[in-house]
Design a protein that fits this description.
It is built from 24 helices and five strands. By secondary structure, it is mainly α.
């Protein structure tokens, strides 16, 4: 079935609720493990129905935020999802109280019960109204970002369409584009501050109601992190400061020397070469055809899977008015379909989407037949290993996308992967400060951002750039608003992806087999146990980053 042919069904939440309550009652009355598993499968089917139409509404709303039908559908799910979570929590509570719980553990795995323990800690009916408010604020942020209309170069552009100007060979164009983009954020500073301030307050309120000191540990628990703590992440960030920040600074200094700028400002770091950044060749359709050739040749698994994506219209790639910013991969369980969303803008980021988001979609499709829905996706940091490693597996085919600029692309991509990690750690430490100091004012938060960036990105100077001087750069980082504490996952995954790159440089076949094994495991194990299962090193162990970076 093509994506355009999937009919959106407006669910009746009262009917869903009644069915769920009856199934919970039925589960309570089961006498054997087999009877319980039968009811669990019925609840899973109901969950598949609810989450599938919620995902469909979200995709179509993000493709066109001005479409009233899907705007209303998104509002519906913003409203009822927390109530549905209440039902799921009641189900979990009954499941773990059954007298044959140990038998169920054998069938369903310890990890599910660990995750249930976390979900029971992170939800009570008392926070339903808070969750509804959080959802609405998240949607408000996404709409604000999507609403950007910047007059530049005789056109009216959104944030994605501004990106190519930031890579111009003409320093004045880079500067003017940066100022125009920054002015839009500066003009909307109060709106961003207000949305985020409300988010911090509502999340802190939930944490207190659930018995947490603040949102930090609650944020970790909501992400299903069962085998590491905020203290482990803090130690990991220290490794980054010690090992990776100096390497990143060295690479950035070489870049500035290469492009011949004496007093570099933030917009200069977008240009990697005096001959211009590597730019993908061809139309969107030609890029898709090149991706098809790449995945045909990479492996038998990717050969069939890319055709499945293409034939079923499971990619919406081009930027257009009223389209939400950014890129993502999601999954519609009822139809066993991943979906890739992005905003092509003529930069190398277009190719990164075809590799990064493809990696996500390949993983979820590889594990789609795992019978326990909670195990189809792993936790976020493991998810990002699939996407970031796929970027490296694609290297041999970059000539298809960049022609003579192939080596420029690969150099800039690897440099970008390395210099990204300190920024990712900065975002994480910033969020830790925000939720530990939940009474801080918006101005104090922006000042803290500036203080932290000096530790992680000491090369940046701001001069006349109000957008940077006021500490507004993080306004553009959607994860800080919509997915608290997620961002460090990209850095953990990047360290693991570097391990895959090191492996493929020695033995491509072994690296690919290891990657496919990891994808097929889905979320059947915790993050650190997934690494152990496929022989990857634990990034939290002191010295891991230094060891990984040496090759």
């Amino acid at each position: 079935m093509k994506f355009s042919e999937i009919e959106y069904v407006q669910l009746d939440f009262e009917v869903i609720k009644e069915q769920y309550i009856n199934l919970i009652k039925e589960l309570k009355e089961t006498k054997t493990c087999e009877e319980a598993l039968n009811v669990v499968s019925k609840i899973n089917a109901l969950d598949t129905e609810f989450s599938s139409y919620g995902t469909l509404a979200s995709i179509r709303n993000s493709i066109d935020t001005s479409n009233e039908k899907y705007e209303k559908a998104q509002e519906f799910f913003d409203e009822v999802s927390p109530q549905y979570q209440d039902l799921a929590t009641n189900y979990y509570r009954v499941l773990i109280s059954l007298p044959f719980k140990d038998e169920l553990k054998e069938k369903l795995g310890d990890l599910l019960f660990n995750q249930i323990d976390l979900s029971l800690k992170t939800f009570k009916p008392e926070i339903i109204e808070d969750l509804i408010e959080e959802n609405k604020l998240s949607t408000e942020y996404s709409k604000l970002i999507a609403s950007a209309k910047i007059e530049f170069d005789g056109k009216v552009l959104n944030l994605s369409q501004m990106a190519p100007y930031g890579e111009s060979l003409d320093r004045n164009v880079r500067r003017e584009a940066n100022l125009a983009r920054g002015k839009w954020f500066y003009d909307h500073m109060n709106e961003f501050d207000e949305i985020y301030d409300k988010m911090v307050k509502v999340r802190t309120r939930m944490a207190k109601k659930l018995g947490y000191e603040n949102y930090v540990q609650l944020g970790f628990d909501k992400l299903g992190r069962t085998d590491y703590t905020p203290a482990d992440v803090k130690n990991y960030r220290e490794q980054i400061k010690e090992t990776l920040v100096p390497i990143a600074q060295e690479l950035l200094a070489k870049q500035i020397k290469r492009i011949g700028v004496e007093n570099p400002l933030p917009y200069d770091y977008n240009l990697n070469f005096l001959s211009g950044n590597a730019k993908p060749i061809g139309t969107t359709q030609e890029k898709i055809e090149n991706a098809k050739k790449m995945y045909d040749e990479l492996s038998s698994e990717t050969y069939s899977f890319f055709r499945f994506l293409k034939e079923n219209e499971l990619m919406d790639l081009e930027t257009k008015p009223n389209k939400q910013g950014g890129g993502y991969c999601t999954y519609i369980p009822k139809f066993k379909m991943p979906f890739i969303f992005s905003n092509f803008n003529g930069t190398s980021g277009d190719v990164d989407v075809l590799t990064h988001e493809f990696g996500h979609s390949f993983q979820v499709y590889s594990s789609k037949d795992i019978p326990i829905p909670e195990y189809i996706w792993p936790t976020m940091e493991a998810c990002e290993i699939h996407s970031m490693s796929m970027e490296f597996f694609a290297y041999p085919w970059m000539n298809l996308f960049f022609g003579n600029d192939e080596e420029k692309y690969k150099y800039a991509h690897l440099k970008g992967a390395i210099t990204f990690v300190p920024y990712g750690a900065c975002v994480d430490e910033f969020q830790t400060y925000v939720y530990e100091n939940y009474d801080a004012t918006p101005k104090q938060r922006r000042e803290k951002w500036l203080e932290l960036h000096k530790q992680y990105e000491p090369h940046l100077r701001f001069d006349e750039l109000e957008y940077y001087k006021e500490g507004l750069r993080w306004f553009a980082q959607a994860h800080i608003f919509n997915s608290p504490f997620y961002y460090i996952d990209y850095t953990l995954a990047q360290v693991c992806a570097f391990q895959f790159k090191n492996m493929m440089d020695v033995d491509k076949e072994k690296a690919w087999d290891t990657y496919v094994k990891l994808c097929k495991l889905g979320g059947s194990k915790s993050f650190l146990n997934l690494l152990k299962e496929v022989g990857l090193e634990n990034p939290f162990i002191d010295g891991c980053i230094a060891k990984v970076m040496k090759p």
